[in-house]
Design brief:
36% helix; homodimer; mainly alpha; Rossmann fold; two-stranded parallel ribbon
Chain lengths: 226, 226
C-alpha cells in the first residue's frame, strides 16, 4: 500500500482495510517540499488500522525536473491549468510502484494498492488507467512470484472517481480528513497554502461533496484560494 | 545507461559509445555486499568515454530477501544451480529502470541501456526479454515524453549473447576486463572470491572465449572455483 498522507491514499487505505487486507504501508521521503506529509502518513497508518508502516528515503529528487523537488521551480498558485503541470515528478509513480513490488515480493503479498486518480489529476501521465495496467503486466514478468505462477494485482480503487465521491466514501469509512494533507507547499505544522493545484482540487471536492472542509490552512491564508 | 561496474554493463557502455550515444551513467548504492563495484563503475565511466556518472543511494536492501543485501543469507559458493538463486534482489531491475526512466525524462533522453543477459542469468526473472519489452511498454505510458509522442527505447544489446561473445565484443572495443568486477562478495580492494555463481559464470566465459582471465582474485583464493 503506497501511503502519502494525502486524501486519496488515506481513502485507499480505509478501503483496503474494509475489504479485509492486512495493509503494509510504504511512504517515501524523496526530497519533496511537503515532507511533513510523511509524518501524517505514519499517523494515518496507525489510526486506519495498517499492520505496518515503512518510510524509504529515495533520491529521485536529486534529478530535478519538478516543482515538488527542485527549489528553483515555483509551485504554481494561480489556478489549475490544462496539460502536465510542473509539479509532475519524472517517473514518480513508476519508482514508487517498483519499490512496492520489491516489498510485496519480500512479504509474499499478491496486491499493491495505490491511490491514483485519473479524474482530477488527468495531467499526470502516471495516474492513468492504461499506465496502471501496463505496470501490472510488467510486474507479472518481473518477479520470482510471477515465474512461480503467483499473480500480482495493482489495485487503484479511486482511479475513476471524482474527488467528491472519494470524500464521501472516506467519510462513510470513518476518515477524519483533517488528519490528511494534500498541499504541495505545506508548512512544518501541516498548514496548507490553499492556492496550489492540490489545495484547489481538494477544496473543490469538499464543496461538491457538501462537506465542511476540515483542512488546516496556514494562518497567513486569510481567504484560501479566492 | 545503467552501469554496475561489472563485465556486462561495461560492455554495454562500450557498445553505446561506439554507436554514437552520449552516455549518462547511473549506478546504485543499494546496500549490496559488493559495494566496491560502485567505485569501479565510476572509473569505467571515465575510461570508456561516458559524458556523466551519477550514483544514487537507494534503500531497496532494507526490505531484505536477498543474499546480496541481507547479511543473514549466505552467498552460495558450491556451483550454479537451476532455478532463481538467493542472490536475486526482489524487483531490482524494475527499480533500477524506474530511476533510469526518471533521469531519462529529465535529460530528454530517448534511450535507456541496460546490460542484462538472459543466457547466463536465466534464473533472474527481470533479465528476460519479455520483461524488458513489458517495461518499455509501461515506460511509454508513464512519462511526459510519452504523452507528447516521444518514444523511450529500452536497449539491452547483450540480452541474447553467451558470455564468451560478450567478452569477445568488449575486447574488440578495447575494454580491459581487469577494470571490471563481477563477484558477489568482492573485498574492498576489488578482489574476487572465485567461487560464487557470478565468478564462475565469468571465468567460464573467459575460458570459452579463449582469453586469459584478467580478474583479480583475492590472495586467499589459491585455486579459484576448483
Amino acid at each position: 500500500m503506497l501511503l502519502s498522507g494525502g486524501l486519496d491514499s488515506a481513502t485507499t487505505l480505509a478501503i483496503a482495510v474494509r475489504d479485509g487486507f492486512d495493509c503494509y504501508c510504504l511512504s517515501f521521503d524523496y526530497g519533496q517540499r511537503h515532507r511533513t506529509e510523511v509524518r501524517f502518513a505514519g499517523e494515518l497508518a496507525k489510526k486506519l488500522g495498517a499492520v505496518d508502516h515503512r518510510v524509504v528515503r529515495i533520491d529521485i529528487g536529486s534529478f530535478g525536473g519538478s516543482a515538488l523537488t527542485d527549489p528553483g521551480i515555483e509551485v504554481p498558485v494561480g489556478g489549475v491549468q490544462p496539460g502536465i503541470p510542473v509539479t509532475y515528478v519524472p517517473a514518480r509513480n513508476t519508482v514508487f510502484l517498483a519499490y512496492a513490488l520489491g516489498l510485496a515480493e519480500v512479504l509474499s503479498a499478491g496486491d499493491i494498492f495505490i491511490g491514483v486518480n485519473a479524474v482530477d489529476y488527468s495531467g499526470y501521465p502516471d495516474c492513468r488507467p492504461e499506465f496502471i495496467r501496463a505496470f501490472e503486466a510488467m510486474a507479472n514478468l518481473a518477479t520470482r512470484a510471477a515465474v512461480e505462477g503467483r499473480k500480482i494485482s495493482i489495485r487503484a480503487p479511486l482511479i475513476d472517481l471524482p474527488k467528491e465521491e472519494i470524500i464521501r466514501t472516506g467519510i462513510a469509512l470513518g476518515i477524519d480528513y483533517g488528519d490528511t494533507v494534500s498541499c504541495y507547499q505545506l508548512d512544518e505544522a501541516g498548514g496548507a497554502c490553499g492556492v496550489c493545484d492540490s489545495c484547489r482540487i481538494r477544496r473543490d471536492g469538499f464543496e461538491k461533496a457538501g462537506v465542511q472542509d476540515p483542512t488546516h490552512y496556514r494562518r497567513d491564508v486569510a481567504s484560501p484560494g479566492r
